[in-house]
Amino acid sequence: MHFRLRGNNVQLVKSLPDAQLGRAKPTLVGSANLITGQLNERAEAALSDAEKAEVAKWLEKRRDFERKKAEVEILGLPDTLALAVQRLPEMEPEQARELVAELIAALQNIRRVASRHGLI
Predict the structure, then answer these.
(1) Which of 57, 51, 3, 6 shows the shortest CA–CA distance to 26?
(2) Which end of the chain is least crowded, N or C, by CB within 10 Å?
(3) pTM given for the model
(4) Are 103 and 58 within one domain?
(5) pLDDT per position as a tens digit, 47-81
(6) Tell me, what DSSP letter sits at residue 29?
(7) Domain interval for residue 105
(8) Could you tell me the superkingdom of the organism this chain comes from (predicted)?
(9) pLDDT for residue 83 is more than 90
């Protein structure tokens, strides 16, 4: 089975025999929601229990990958902010003002969440 990412969904593609071509042809058999893991009706009907287990395993690996990716991005945030501090004076004033407003809002949100969870 092959998996194609499409926004918040993943398309499930199986290679099925095609009599006209004389070989297997990739065929869309359904989709699953990446967030909930829910298969659509078409996939529920088309997949065997073993294939559903394969999809569930793939979805769990994908969720784990996304968690790790987010963690790496978060760990790099202090370096990114340090770079912003260096480059801010070189930016066009209007663009810099917009960026500073976005950064302040994001940092206020971080402070609020950190406070709520007893981190500061």
Answers:
(1) 3
(2) C
(3) 0.73
(4) no
(5) 999 999 999 999 999 999 999 999 999 999 999 99
(6) E
(7) 76-116
(8) Bacteria
(9) yes
